[in-house]
Amino acid sequence: MLLSSILVQEFAQEPAAEAHRGFNAGETIIEHVSNSGHDHPLIHLPSAFGIDFSVTKHVFMLWLVAAIVFIIVTWYVRRYLRQDRLIPSGFMNGLEAVVEFVRDTVVQPNVGHKWVNTWAPLILTFFTFILCSNAIGLIPLFDTLALLDRFLFHTSPDSFLNRVIHGGTTATANFNVTAALATITFVSIIVAGSKAHGFVKHWKNIAPHGLNPLIYVILIPIEVIGMFVRPFALTMRLAANMTGGHIAILAILSFVFLFTEMFGRAIAGIGVGMVVSVPLAVGISALELIVVLVQAYVFTLLSAVFIGMAIHVHH
Amino acid sequence: MQFLHYFGAALGLGMIVIGAGLGIGKFAAAAAEGIARQPGAADRITGAVNLPLFLLEGVAILAEVFVLLIVLLK
Could you tell me which of A41, A37, A40, A34 has the C-alpha nearest to residue A55? Predict the structure, then answer.
């Protein structure tokens, strides 16, 4: 208790000390991870029906990723369809490997033979889109732009370039984006069940038949809660994983500035950066490469599993 | 007393790590043992372990999000 009271006193003095400090790690990290604010979006649009339609950075990234995926995939699929031989060449091989992997190891075992061609396109779209928007967050494209802007271009704070460098790059690190993706899964679970069993039968399938009526009093609420928890867990998993890695990297890199300020000289920060921060950040970035792939895989796998559970009811 | 929620968040993070570590460790141990006994069934064992592993990870991540909310919302 004594220790905690001392610590509390220490903490209480901290904001006063922070006021004249130049570097606030928490604020910097949050600014680099979160979406650009409503007060300075990329493109100002009027609000309609009480919704602000202004284009923020994550919306911009969503469009960018969607455009990249659409152009690359349609370009190569068109080229494959136009060529007269069946063997794909070049990048088409990579695309084919992804499609076959998702169809044969993710969709097929969960959804079953009969419904593969119905649900593979949706799951594949999820996979390519999530993988692309996860991976684009690892490329320090906008941070490089910020460096150039700071030292070369010197644009005004109102310019498009200056607004585009504020906020995080990973669209899937935004809970709203992943919530929208999980909503698609939620709706497609219902659609899958309705297509396989009929609309009324799908809702009857929520709980097993022929049990004691008293059990249903407990069972039906649990199953209904479970219905909503699944997309909620999908939302949180993807967004938190994508945010967490970036926060870890930024926190480790901010040691450089914290130590510089603590000792009052740049050499301390540079030393800590060279010995601790940069090697650790490289390690976490390598881990992030795996996380990017795994999270895209997990989202698609769980979507396929939930759709399969609606089709093959195991009660 | 206004900074006590940091203690709660830190304790919570530690307990999340303990729980998730124990769970994932048990999964990995069981899977490795199963594959060592029956190398032929490696694919099926990995497939069976994958899904509950991700569900477990999801629970841990959810807990971490709530810890973050404790810190951010106070």
Answer: A41
Nearest CA in chain A to B7: A4
Q: How far apart are CA A18 and CA A30, in angstroms?
A: 17
**Residues above pLDDT 90, as percent of chain A:** 14
pTM: 0.81
pLDDT of A22 above 70: no
The Cα-based distances of A12 to A6, A15, A24, B9 in angstroms read 10, 7, 16, 17
What DSSP character marks residue A156? -
Give A224's contacts (C-beta < 8 A, 6+ positions apart).
A206
Range with the largest mean pLDDT of A135-139, B12-16, B66-70: B12-16
Q: Give me the residue from A4, A237, A305 closest to B61, CB to CB.
A: A237
Both structure tokens of A33: 């991870």
Which chain A residue lies closest to B59 (C-alpha atoms)?
A: A233
Q: Which residue has the tokens 């679970």?
A: A189
Q: How far apart are CA A112 and CA A117, in angstroms?
A: 10
- CA separation for the pair B31, A147 (Å, rounded): 47
Look at the block and give the residue holding tokens 């490329």.
Answer: A139
Q: What is the pLDDT of residues A119-145, one digit of tens each?
A: 999 999 999 999 999 988 888 777 777
CA A293/CA A301 separation, integer angstroms:
12
User: Are the CB atoms for A124 and A103 separated by under 8 Å?
Assistant: yes
Q: Put residue A37 in one of left, alpha, beta given phi > 0 → left and psi -120 to 50 → alpha.
A: beta
Nearest to B62 among A4, A233, A298 (CB): A233
- The string of pLDDT tens digits covering residues A236-268 is 888 888 888 888 888 888 888 888 888 888 888
Query: Which of A232, A234, A297, A298 is most worth mutating to test chain B (most B CB atoms within 10 A of its CB)?
Result: A298
Q: Where are the alpha helices (DSSP H) in chain A?
A: 2-19, 25-33, 57-82, 91-101, 108-111, 116-136, 141-148, 160-164, 175-197, 199-204, 213-253, 255-263, 266-272, 278-311
- Residue owning tokens 């926190």: A251
* CATH code for the structural domain at B4-69: 1.20.20.10
